[in-house]
Design a protein that fits this description.
The protein contains 16 helices and 16 strands. The protein is of the alpha+beta class and 503 residues long. The protein starts with 12 loop residues before the first strand and ends with a helix.
Amino acid sequence: MLDLTYEMPKPKTIAGAKHDWELVIGMEVHAQVSSNAKLFSGASTQFGAEPNSNVAFVDAAMPGMLPVINEYCVEQAVRTGLGLKADINLKSAFDRKNYFYPDLPQGYQISQLYHPIVGEGEVLVELGDGTARKVRIERIHMEQDAGKSIHDMDPQMSFVDLNRTGVCLMEIVSRPDIRGPEEAAAYIAKLRQIMRYLGTCDGNMQNGNLRADVNVSICLPGAYEKYQETQDFSHLGTRCEIKNMNSMRFIQQAIEVEARRQIAIVEAGGEVEQETRLYDPDKGETRSMRSKEEAHDYRYFPDPDLLPLEIEQAWVDDIAARLPELPDEKKSRFINDFGLTDYDASVLTAEVESAAYFEEVAKGRNGKLAANWVINELFGRLKKDDRDITGSPVSPAQLGGIIDLIASDAISGKIAKELFEIVYTEGGDPAQIVEERGMKQVTDTGAIEAALDEIIAANPAQVEKAKVNPKLAGWFVGQVMKATGGKANPKAVNELVSKKLGS
């Protein structure tokens, strides 16, 4: 159990000409399953392959070709459901969604409407200010992705790449529990984080492996609470769906723009029409794509080529037993075991690779000191060089070695930063570098005292000033550090200066 407590954030309010309005947002997140093969064929899912090279006969809808379920994709969907604390449906089924996709040769999409693989779950979305929103998951269903139409390679023709056709998607549908643009982005980020920990989706939004349809509506203050009490959607405004968003920044912009568009319509006495819209970031506006279809518009019916999917509870239990430690639990453990702040624990657990790196560095060492070096020194340097933790030139063992040298008083914090730069750019064993380059700090109080005595003897006027104003004693500390090439133990220097000057 997590022992972290949060307050519920206040909803985003936008001032209209007549009223203040609140936002209500639901999300349909499409996450590409991490799998080597597609949902119903053995074709590769490799990104960036030559166009139409990852296409099996069933993906191309050749006559007589029948889909065969990929068991690993089912396992990945179950694993995701368990990670979102959701109900796993032991019986589910596939349906045909009849809709014209120019880049889906079948002319329909195999999806799950009536009996999805995963039922209700929840996600705790932290907002970084001590508040968090619990967002309810309505369902997760599997479906096949469509291909890609390319319109900018020829002025008169469009091209179609079917490589993505048939790739397994998980559509994660939330309840309308999100109340602002920042919450929407944080929700996507949390889903991405959980799935990356689980290994079920790589979360690469740039490649289209994670994208969202955002449903936006507005309501007057107090109306949402009535909806929560009754689950009656009539208390909320008419929603519009913003399609295919794959940028956190654009998601936030689009929500704000769409909400203001709806407010202007309602306050002018009009009615918002339920429809699907697209966001144009260059013009900063949403534009109509098509009227919003209902389920009956797609003429769903059970797919006759696929038997209902029945899975055993023992199989689900086995997957559950093999789940990794998830972000919320890991963050709580880092706070409790290593004494980290909520902020530091959040930064370190943001990516599964960062958490693993830190834990290796912190093993058997001071957790706070390890966190400081990983976050401030290593992450700062990696960001400067536009690298991520997987490309770090400093291994956990090397960084741990630097921390060990600090803890043993072999080097000072200043020397440690110089050592870190050497290890980062040149590599090598930190202890050996310190030995070979004479970087050990001077801890011999006799040598430090001798240097201090010379400085005191040479600066009698400064001594008198320091005795009158103890703050000036810092000058002597600086002079000793300079005289010893920055190698003197700062603590020993401060103690000796204080003793000699009586400050």
